[in-house]
Every structure is written in C-alpha cells, then in structure tokens.
Write a structure and sequence with these properties.
The chain is α/β, with parallel strands linked by helices. It contains 16 helices and 26 strands. The model is unreliable at 180-194 (pLDDT under 50).
C-alpha cells in the first residue's frame, strides 16, 4: 500500500510540474496559446529534428528576417541560419555522410560551429562537441571511442587534426583569415581527403528544406576530463517543457539579446544558446574571449543577458575603471554564471558592478540543471547555488544511501530532471538512488532551503580525523584583499594522515607572506582548516570552463 501512495504522490507532482512549466513558458513568451497550430508545428519540428535544428526551424518560421546571430563576420537572420544548415546537410549527404554517422566539431564560437550542429541534426548524424583545449592524445582517444567519421575544425587546430586517420573526412570551418584560401600545404598527409571549407559547401549547394531524418542525430557533450579522458554524455531532451527548468529561475524574454562568452562546446554555453534560439533572441558571439570586447558588445547590442564562467567574470571585473566607464552595460538584466564554483567574493563584486542581476547555476554535464540562485537568493546568502527550478529535484544522501534532511547537514548531492543524461557513450553511468543521479558533489541546505556546495566527494581532505572540503577554505582566501585566486589540496602527513596546502595567486604589486595567509584563515575558520603549507604561484591551472585542475597541483 505505501508503494501505491508513493506512485500517486509522484503522479500528482508530475501533473503539478507540468502546469507550472506551461505557465513559465507562457510568461517567457515561448508558448503562445493564441496560435495552437503554431505550437503543434513547433512541437513537431523539435521532435523530428531535435532541440537545436528544430528550434532554428521554428524561429525561421516565426521571425524569418529577425537577427538571430552576431559574430565576427556580421549578422545572420533566423532564416539564413536555417537555409545555411539546409545547404550544409545536403552537401554532407553528397559526400557520403549518412544518418547515424558521427561528426566531431573542434571549433571556436562562430557561425560555422552552429551551421554544423544544425546540419548534423537535419542529416540525422550525431555531433560530438570537442574541447578546443584538447591535447593531441586526448583528441585521438575521443575520436576513436566515439567513432567519428568526419571532423569540422578551425585552421588553428590543423596540427591536432593532422595525426588523425586519413580516412576521416575533414571540413575546414574557420580559416584564420576569413578571406584567404585554405593553405593545403599545411597538411602533410598527401593521401588525406581534400580539405573543404564549409563556406564553399554552403554557398554552392541548394538550401531548400530536405526531408526530416527518421531519427534526430543528437548531441554528445564531453565531461571536463579533469581526472582522465573526457567521457561522452549524450544530451537528450525528453520533454517539450524542459526549457522551463531554466526559465523558471532565469527571466529570459523574447526578442532580446544575449552575449554568450562561455564556450559553446560546453553545456553552459550550448544550453543558453538554445534558449535564445527558442525565444527568437539575438545571440552575440566572440570567437575568443576578451574582457573589454565583452563589455563593448554589451554596449553595442544592448544585451540584456551575459553568459560566462566565473574566471571570465573575474577578468571582466578586473578591467580598470577607466575602461569600464567607456561602455554602457546598464541594459543587463541577467549575468548568468555556471561551469565552476562562484565564490561569494566574486559574486558580490559582480553585484556591485552590474547591480542585482546575478544568476548562479549549479549543474553538470550529466545531471544538467540542479539549482539556480537568483539575485534575491544571493543577497540573502552569498555563495549559495539557490533552489531547484520546476521539474528538478535535489536530495542529499549519506554513504549508505539514506536520505539526509534538515539544515546544515552535509550529504552527497543527487539530482533528477528532464534533462539528465542516460549514460556515457563508452558505457557506464553515474550512481542512482530513487531515480536521482549522483552529482559527485557534497553539499548542505540552510534553514531556508538554499543549497550550498561544500566540495567534490573525491576532494575531501582528512586531517587529524577531521573532514575538510577545499571550497570553504578557498572562498575565505579569495576574500583577502591581497589574494587574486587560491586553491587548497591535501598532501600526506606522517602525524595527521593529511594536511592542507594552499596555492595562492597574489594580487599584482602586493607582498604577502605564508604567515599572513595562515593567520587570515585562522581568524575565520577552525584551526584544523588552516593550511600548514602555503605556496605562491602566478596562475592556477584551469580548463576552458574555469574548473580547477587539482591534479596538476599535486
């Protein structure tokens, strides 16, 4: 009987979530009930082509002449985005790419990257989004594991692509000089297929609609790979209401403009791009991140949204006052931070600079959205990652799989939503309890239900029988006026089993001593959380999304 009641409660919760989700979509302008025929066509397009190509098809039908994308080459309308990908899908089909094939994308943020995602979906091919920070071995391993038969890449990555098997078809996306002819002399393997630029394929091919594939191709995101070879995590959208998981907590609205500085090969940038596409908003991209260019683009296009990772946010805030004063950023309603931990100090700086517009998302490649902290949440508790949006559930469990309730009790964070992945492409998945996936993080709720991340499960340091999570110590360190960045790891200790070692990046032009660092932590935290070792370095090792590479500090 208890099982029956549990199923009834679950069904009732799902119905409630569905109604709330529809309301959220309506308020954002994504669902317009005055045109049920339009809604049905939109649902059909997404079902046939997937969320990315389906969304661009819907936007092209609703707002064909509206600007959908701005990059370094100029502006493209939604209709142009749709037709360009039609042409590319037809061109690829003529080169023997077929439904079910796997295409790798090794590109910066620009139109050719998006053309390729849309075209792959229209062809029924799977697109694997490759990290632009890959070393040659990582790229080769991922290409082999994922079964990639064609690769789209920017010319700057030619040295990485050259060693790949000659049988892999190659398509040059971005030539360093967009007006230049590709330099085929840079390809040492004379048996390699002739390089073909996407620009030529698109301009020389029929751009009319083509039949929908029997199955959408899909997207494969890669994990950060901070502890080994990145894993492939296919992204599936199981419900047309999944967009509400963002819009319930982040107030995007139709026909605005958002600058996405976070790389599109990462879940943060890609997820926010598809939101802009669905809302017929302008997406502004820059091929390479430059903090002054970010504020200049916000000014020029009156962007209401800015999407970036915390290290990017810090570089923007580190611009001198004279530089910042040259640009008007008052249009910003949303500064969306995700991809790695946002310290209280950095979030407070952002609020001081831009106003109460900060939205701090917590999630991962596998679990997708877990929680979002709104400006009100951050004002109440700086450092929080907020609450779960509609359609998401977050619970804490102990090591034995028992649920933990109550404020300030640490536990393993498990997440469930309509966007969680279904398993890695190479096999295996995350641990699951009660239908929720392990995030790999440890956290706690406060008395008001706000979630805080205390650290990674595997980053915990045991010193003298006490458990210490580095994040708490790191957050204190970066609040010091002479410290720009900091990381804490555990190192072996004969007496205590382990001890804390801090790596500190001083602010330029300042002098700092280990004693000063230890004294500052001791004044704010328990004695066992004070680092015994302090090392000063110029820069912490981080990946392209700002995640700290702790293994490089050991």
């Amino acid at each position: 009987m208890p099982d029956v009641f549990a199923r009834v409660r679950q069904a009732a919760s799902q119905v409630t979530d569905a109604f709330r989700s529809v309301q959220v979509l309506r308020e954002a302008g994504l669902a317009r009930f005055t045109r049920p025929d339009e809604m049905l066509r939109s649902v059909l397009a997404v079902r046939q082509l997937g969320p990315f190509a389906g969304a661009v098809k819907v936007a092209a039908r609703r707002d064909p002449d509206a600007i959908g994308l701005v990059d370094e080459l100029g502006e493209l309308s939604f209709s142009q985005l749709d037709r360009r990908s039609n042409a590319l899908a037809r061109a690829w089909r003529s080169t023997a790419l077929k439904p079910g094939d796997v295409i790798g994308l090794l590109c910066r943020d620009h139109r050719w990257f998006l053309d390729s995602i849309f075209a792959a979906a229209k062809l029924g091919a799977r697109a694997v989004l490759l990290n632009t920070g890959f070393a040659g071995r990582q790229l080769a391993d991922v290409v082999a594991r994922e079964g990639i038969v064609g690769i789209v890449y920017d010319q700057e990555f030619t040295p990485l692509v050259d060693p790949l098997p000659a049988t892999i078809r190659r398509y040059l996306a971005w030539v360093d000089d967009p007006t230049a002819v590709p330099d085929r002399a840079r390809v040492p393997d004379r048996n390699a297929p002739e390089l073909t630029t996407l620009q030529r394929l698109i301009t020389e091919t029929d751009d009319t609609d083509l039949p929908a594939p029997s199955e959408p191709g899909g997207i494969v995101l890669l994990t950060s790979g901070t502890t080994g070879i990145p894993k492939g995590a296919p992204r599936q959208v199981r419900s047309a209401l999944a967009a509400a998981e963002f819009l319930d907590r982040v107030p995007y609205r139709r026909n605005e403009a958002t600058l996405i500085a976070s790389p599109l090969f990462h879940a943060t940038g890609l997820s926010q791009f598809v939101m802009q596409l669905a809302l017929a908003c302008i997406t502004v991209l820059a091929r390479r991140f430059d903090p002054e260019r970010v504020v200049a683009l916000i000014d020029r296009y009156r962007c209401t949204g800015l999407v970036l990772v915390p290290t990017m946010l810090q570089r923007v805030l580190d611009l001198d006052e004279e530089t910042l004063a040259r640009y008007d950023t008052s249009s910003l309603r949303i500064v969306f931070s995700a991809g790695s931990a946002l310290s209280p100090e950095l979030g407070n700086r952002a609020t001081k600079a831009f106003g109460e517009v900060l939205y701090n998302l917590y999630g991962s490649t596998e679990v997708a959205v877990a929680t979002v902290a709104t400006p009100a949440d951050w004002r109440q508790a700086p450092g929080t990652v907020g609450r779960s949006p509609v359609g998401c559930r977050v619970r804490l469990y102990d090591e034995n799989g028992n649920q933990i309730t109550g404020p300030d009790r640490q536990g393993r964070i498990f997440v469930g939503s309509g966007l969680t992945f279904g398993g890695y492409t190479g096999g295996g998945t995350k641990e699951e309890i009660d239908g929720l996936l392990d995030s790999g993080d440890i956290g706690h709720f406060d008395a008001t239900g706000l979630l805080f991340i205390d650290g990674r499960s595997d980053d915990m340091i045991v010193s003298g029988g006490e458990n210490v999570y580095p994040g708490e110590v790191e957050n204190i360190l970066v609040e010091h006026e002479k410290i720009s960045d900091a990381a804490v790891i555990g190192v072996p200790d004969a007496e205590f089993g382990g001890r804390l070692k801090a790596f500190v990046v001083p602010q330029p032009g300042t002098e700092l001593t280990p004693e000063e660092v230890r004294g500052y932590v001791k004044a704010h935290l328990a004695r066992f959380k004070v680092p015994r070792d302090v090392a000063f370095i110029d820069e912490l090792p981080r990946n392209s999304t700002g995640k700290l590479l702790r293994h490089k500090l050991r």
